[in-house]
Amino acid sequence: MTAQPDDLIKDTVDLHYHSGPSPLPRRLDPAESAKHYDEHGFKAVVYKSHHHNTVMDVPSIKGSVLDNLRVRVFGGIALNGLVGGLNPRAVEMCLHMGGKIVWFPTMSSPATHQVSRPRIKVVGPEHTTIGSDTGQATWQSG
Fold first, then answer.
1. Residue 23: left if φ>0, alpha if ψ -120 to 50, beta else—which one?
2. pTM over 0.70
3. Would you call 118 exposed, middle or buried from its count of C-beta atoms within 10 A (0-12, 13-18, 19+)?
4. 99 with 75: CB under 8 angstroms?
5. Which long-range contacts (CB under 8 A, 24 or more apart) does 90-97 make?
6. Residue 83 CB neighbours (<10 A)
7. pLDDT (tens digit, 0 to 9) for every residue of the chain, 142 residues total?
8. Any alpha helices (H) in 2-142, and if so which ranges?
C-alpha cells in the first residue's frame, strides 16, 4: 500500500537528506530514499554526505529508479577534508555534473572539533591520549 502524501509536505523540497552508504548509520540508500520521497509527495530532494560528493549518486540510480518516479533527486558537496576542504575544483566539478548545493565544512570544521574534542585512547604499558581542545595532535602520557 502506498502512503498518502501529507498536504503540508506535498510538492516540497528537502534540501538536506543523508542516504547510505556512509560511515555513519543511515536508514535508506539513494534508491530507497528516492522511492520514499516520491511516495510521500515531495517535489525534490538533495542528498548530502559529510564524506563524499553526492552528485554522482544520482546517475547511479537514474535508469533503474528515477526514470519511473515523479520526485527529482539532486546531489551536492560538503567541503570537508575528504573532498579536499575548501576546494574550488571539487565545487566546479560538482556544479558541472548537476550539483545544486555547496555546504561549507561540517565534520572537519574548527567549530566541530571544538565541540567534539576527538581523542584516541591507546592501551599499552602507558595510557596515551592523542588529541587536544584545539584539534591539534598532542601526546599526554599518564
1. alpha
2. yes
3. exposed
4. yes
5. 90/53, 93/53, 94/53, 94/55, 97/55, 97/56
6. 22
7. 465 667 788 899 999 999 988 888 889 999 999 999 999 999 999 999 999 999 999 999 999 999 999 999 999 999 999 899 999 999 999 999 999 999 999 887 776 666 655 554 545 545 444 444 444 444 444 4
8. 30-39, 59-62, 88-96, 110-116
Domain ranges of the chain: 13-108, 112-142
3-state secondary structure string across 99-137: CCEEECCCCCCHHHHHHHCCCEEECCCCCEEECCCCCCC
Alpha carbons 12 and 41: distance in angstroms, whole number: 8
